[in-house]
Request: fold
Amino acid sequence: MSLVGYARVSTSEQDLALQLDALKAAGATRIFEDRGVSGAKAERPGLNAALSFLRQGDTLTVWKLDRLGRSMTHLLQTVAELEGRGVGFRSLTETIDTTTPTGRLVFHLFGALGQFERDLIRERTGAGLKAAAARGRKGGRPIALTAEKVARARQLIASGLNVREAAARVRVSKSALYTALKDSPALTV
Reply:
């Protein structure tokens, strides 16, 4: 049973010293690192190596929760996978240790709060979209084509140009022009 550390900084200019010192002081016997790797990236070679190295009874230790997970969902998933393999998880800053009953409780409370926050955001977004729709507003990107551009494109198509050529002349994408023409019954494509 060993304490395995993982440290990460987002840019190559940042220093791992603080994390490395804390992990060594906590008793980490082996430390894996990622330098210049954003937490949002799925591919983190140091983390992958650490996860491969861990054996049943080991504990993966990080300086802070955000060093491990890209999001709360990813963090929960990673810790659940570790638990399934008989590997503990420890975060030094938040003093969470899933090898203890209290640590597991605290970690799962964090997870529940994270899920609650995501649900609230989804609920507020849905309510905002409904309110906007009730006022006649439609979400998405603004329409690139004005009525004048659509009329000009129709003239160009009627004179023999194809949709791609007409779109280039009125300076819009071919797909935007197809959508505008499809939405307008005056000309079928």
